[in-house]
Design goal:
The chain contains 8 helices and 15 strands. By secondary structure, it is an alpha+beta fold. It has 2 domains: 2-116, D-amino Acid Aminotransferase, Chain A, domain 1; 122-276, D-amino Acid Aminotransferase, Chain A, domain 2, CATH 3.20.10.10. The structure holds pyridoxal-5'-phosphate. Pyridoxal-5'-phosphate (PLP) binds next to helix 6 and strand 13. Its cofactor is pyridoxal 5'-phosphate.
Length: 281
């Protein structure tokens, strides 16, 4: 594991931040997870752009410079020697005497952690996984990738206790997204996923799937659908940087479609696998 703290390489054991860091005290920070396939970054540019947008949304000045962050990410991956890795980026508003209002003088704490990625078991992709549904108890700005993930953690823990892979959030009967993934359903050969608004994180993987659909004449729409649409779907799959394209074969104990990964899901999986072999940006 390679760790950079505020632009400096540090030993894992010595990688420590202040007890008054606002990330620690208030969840006042943002993060990204980027995947490295075969030594190549998979859309680092898009992840950094999302980080920048998030910073704007929460009035955080990325005082270390986004270019520096990019350099450190590339350097850290190089030094790690890992071919397949995940890069965890976290940026907080920094350390200051505790008070809610933003400190006048603080500089960002920024961390880059490179870990070798083991990936999910292959059988998950081949046979599909199960999900549960849970009420969405998060705030109304889920488009920002903040480190305030307690509601997501509780949801994931419930899924784990139920022997499921993921918890799917719903709000007033509408299906929103997973605790760490976006949700797609397939109905009559059309992909449907929640619109990219303040209720979901606009996933990089979600975007790649829509591009794949565009390029291969697969119909799709970004619209709100309800829990019954989820249960009645021909196919369901999740998307995410570490989730990739994950077929869902059961939700709340109800079998989806034929109970095996669907036809379109498999096609998207195939195109996605081809895509990760070529992207390097
Ligand atoms: N939605 C949530 C709540 C997430 O935490 C994530 C990823 O961590 C995603 C969606 C998928 O986003 P991406 O495809 O950019 O990894």
């Amino acid at each position: 594991t390679v760790v950079y703290l505020n632009g400096q390489r540090v030993d894992y054991e010595n990688a420590k931040v202040s007890v008054e860091d606002r990330g620690f005290q208030f969840g006042d920070g943002l993060y990204e997870v980027v995947h490295i396939y075969n030594g190549r970054f998979f859309y680092l540019d898009r992840h950094l752009a999302r980080l920048q947008n998030g910073a704007k949304e929460i009035y955080m000045d990325l005082d270390f410079g986004l270019n520096n962050l990019e350099k450190v990410c590339r350097q850290a991956v190089k030094e790690s020697g890992f071919n397949d890795a995940s890069v965890y980026i976290q940026v907080t508003r920094g350390a200051a005497v505790r008070q809610h209002a933003f400190p006048k003088e603080s500089s960002c704490t920024w961390v880059v952690i490179v870990r070798e990625s083991k990936g999910n078991p292959q059988e998950f992709y081949e046979n599909g996984i199960t999900c549960i549904t849970v009420p969405d108890e998060r705030w109304s700005r889920c488009n920002i990738k903040t480190v305030q993930l307690l509601a997501n953690c509780i949801a994931k823990e419930k899924a784990k206790k139920a022997g499921s892979f993921e918890a799917i959030f719903h709000r007033g009967g509408s299906v929103i997204e997973g605790s760490s993934s976006n949700v797609f359903i397939v109905k009559d050969n059309k992909l449907i996923t929640h619109p990219a608004n303040n209720k979901i994180l606009n996933g990089i993987t979600r975007g790649v799937v829509l591009e794949i659909a565009d390029q291969n004449d697969i119909k799709y729409s970004e619209e709100v659908f309800c829990i019954d649409d989820l249960f009645d779907a021909d196919e369901v799959f999740l998307t995410g940087t570490t989730t990739e394209i994950m077929p869902v074969v059961k939700v709340d104990g109800k079998i989806i479609g034929d109970g095996i990964p669907g036809k379109l899901t498999k096609i998207i999986q195939k195109y996605y696998q081809e895509h990760i072999q070529t992207v390097d940006c």
